[in-house]
TrEMBL record:
Signal peptide: none annotated. It comes from the Eukaryota. This is Caffeine-induced death protein Cid2. Pfam families: MIX23. InterPro entries: MIX23 (IPR019171), MIX23_fungal (IPR016805). One of its GO terms (cellular component) is mitochondrial intermembrane space. It comes from Aspergillus bombycis. Belongs to the MIX23 family.
Length: 194
């Protein structure tokens, strides 16, 4: 099995962020490469050959919980430092960049003139709700920065859930750690800056 590698950062630009399909595809690919296949990635770190091969071991299905095996601490640390944390950091960087784009003015918004026209037209509208009870209901077009901000907010929530799940499996298989994923990631960032 090929070892997992951290996903590389895309070329960050406002156009990348506003292309919500591209942003979602990057996040989905990064998550599927590392987090969604965490069990396989961790199994690839285990080297049973050090213990020798026992032919009788193939007679019964072995599960990780039955075997009570843990992965070599150096292999675990190497995986976390060179694959897991860099992948998480890349996704954080992308989401932080796109959050900045979402909160910045957007002079290139292609729908800006259309939204302004609709807004002016709606202010002039005379509504008789007795004749048309639905006429008062108006859904203004959402600016693409608002749409991007909602996407980033949702993806950050997804990221929290995925990282907690992944970290639970990593600590279980790598001789557990009592610290949470946020603290472990921050510790890695500090070590990396030195």
């Amino acid at each position: 099995m090929a070892r997992a590698t951290s996903t590389s950062a895309p070329e960050l630009s406002p156009q990348f962020c506003f292309n919500e399909r591209l942003l979602r595809d990057f996040l989905r690919l990064s998550r599927s490469t590392i987090d969604d296949s965490i069990t396989q990635n961790l199994n690839a770190l285990f080297t049973p050959s050090r213990e020798g091969f026992d032919p009788s071991s193939t007679a019964v299905r072995q599960t990780d919980s039955e075997a009570g095996r843990t992965i070599d601490p150096a292999a675990c640390q190497n995986f976390k430092d060179n694959v897991l944390f860099p992948s998480w950091q890349t996704r954080s960087d992308v989401l932080n960049y796109c959050a900045g784009v979402a909160t910045s003015p957007d002079p290139d918004d292609p729908d800006l003139v259309l939204r302004q026209t609709e807004s002016a037209r709606d202010r002039e509208r005379v509504v008789n709700e007795r004749l048309d009870p639905y006429s008062a209901r108006f859904f203004p077009r959402e600016a693409r920065t608002e749409s991007l901000a909602n996407l980033v907010r949702n993806q950050r929530n997804v990221e929290e859930i995925i990282r907690a799940r992944t970290w639970g499996l990593v600590t279980e298989r790598c001789n557990g750690s009592s610290i949470g994923w946020e603290e472990a990631l921050n510790s890695w960032r500090e070590r990396k800056q030195r």
